[in-house]
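Example record for the data management plan.
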Amino acid sequence: TDLAYLALLHIQRQRPLPDFFQTILRLPTARDLVINYSRHQDPQLLRQLYQALDQPHEVAALGVLDAYRYQDLVRRRKGLEQAGALFSQSKDDNGKAMAKTTDEQLKLLDVQEELEKATGRAVFVDTSLSETIRLCFALNQHKRGLRLAKDMKVADKLLWWLRVSGLAEGHEWAELEKLSKEKKLPPIGFEPFVEACIREGRNDEAVKYASKVTDMSRRAELCVRMGMFRDAADAAVTARDRDLLHSVKAKATAPGDIAY
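Corresponding structural encoding:
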């Protein structure tokens, strides 16, 4: 393989690039070797080869990678716009889908830039759509978070998870409680509310939701984490889980914690 690479590189140096491409395009093995080499050593050559192969979606994919190397958002945006235009030239469905994805990423970048200006926090750019929405709720940008989720068609359950996590991180306990009452039973249940509060060291808030967890075994486990051993034992008994009850007893800090 090394000898083949050396031979191909020698031909590349000796011939005009169009002639070199014509040569290797007739030889699939040689073409694949050049693609593999240039992917790691010469991105510009790879871009030119994909252009010769009439594969605009591959050129676009390289353009996306290049765009994200720029910290300057103007240059990044321009790179993504060029990549999106190339994706749209693709004749297959995958290219069209990538064009749409690139357009969505441009919209997300615009929103992230606006959010950083609004909050004075450089934490949005370079995060995913989900993390951007979650941060909106952590940094008191609730309306923007809801609007972004709607525009990007985020699934309802995922949005609930992000709202719960963000509100808890932002210590917006009144808003979190308000969210828990939007529906009789949140689509993600009450367990994520408990988990989020515990994660923030607020067992006093977690207690509000622990009693609403319908899976008694899981309720017992959560109560143990909060040091509520008597409630944990009650849940284990209701679940008729003897092993769990023994486990709760073993973790109790004082004999009087549990009456069973």
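Summary line stored alongside the record: The CA atoms of residues 184 and 190 lie 11 Å apart.
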